Structure formats: C-alpha cells, structure tokens
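Sample intake — Secretion/DNA translocation related TadE-like protein
Collected from: Paramicrobacterium agarici
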Amino acid sequence: MRGMTAPCEVRQSCRNVAGSMRVWRSCSRRAHRRLANERGAASVLAIALVAATLIAVGILAPLCSVYAARQAVAGAADAAALAAADTASGLVAGVPCEAARRAADLNGAALDDCSVEGLVALVRVSTTVLGLPVAASARAGPPQL
C-alpha cells in the first residue's frame, strides 16, 4: 500500500499540483488527455455568459423604451385634456379640441378623440413606438363630487 498512489481523479488535478513532478508523472495518460480536452472551457463559458447578457439587454431595452413612451404619452394626454378644459372654461380663448390637438402635437402624440361636456374634457392620444401603438386617455375639469 505504501508504494501505491491514488488515481489522478481522486487528487485535485494534475494541473493544480504540477509543482510536484512525482505526482504529475503518476497521472495516467487518460487523465492527461482529459485535462487536454478541458482547455478552452472557461472561454466557452465566458462567451456564453456574454451572449446571454447581450440577449437579455436586447430584450429589455425595447421594453424599457415602450414603457418610457407610455409615460410620455400619458403626459401628452394630461396636457391635451388640461388645454381643452382651460379653453372650455373660458380661461383661454379658442376651440377646446383644437387646443387639445395642439397640446398633443407639441408633446409628440396624435389626438385620437376629444369630447367636451360642460367644463369637463376627455381626450385620447396615441403614438407608435417600435411599431407598437401606445395610447393614453385623460380627463380634466372641475373635481368630481
């Protein structure tokens, strides 16, 4: 038992203990071939990790831009509704839905629908981001009781 050495697989690896030539020589040829076949595995894993990260960014970036556009369209709808309500109340001269259209245009959206009942203005605006329609609606006027 004293002269026998443990198989190379039981030890850490031939490469990790290469400082000891006696241990290195005791590794079988099969173990050397296995170690030779492992070369480049870290590179493949690193490339796979970079590819997975790029794919995740490629999926998330458009989703984030659509979400940001949704918030911008909501702001455009609010501005258009306020412009229409201000015009309907007489605070600003003009036609309410025309004021809403101008406000929507200035905010990068198109006015789809505008209705004014008394002092209350309801508007719907939309735009297209990455080929997807993004729409929002808003109400402006005196508080509801």
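Post-analysis note: The radius of gyration is 34 Å.
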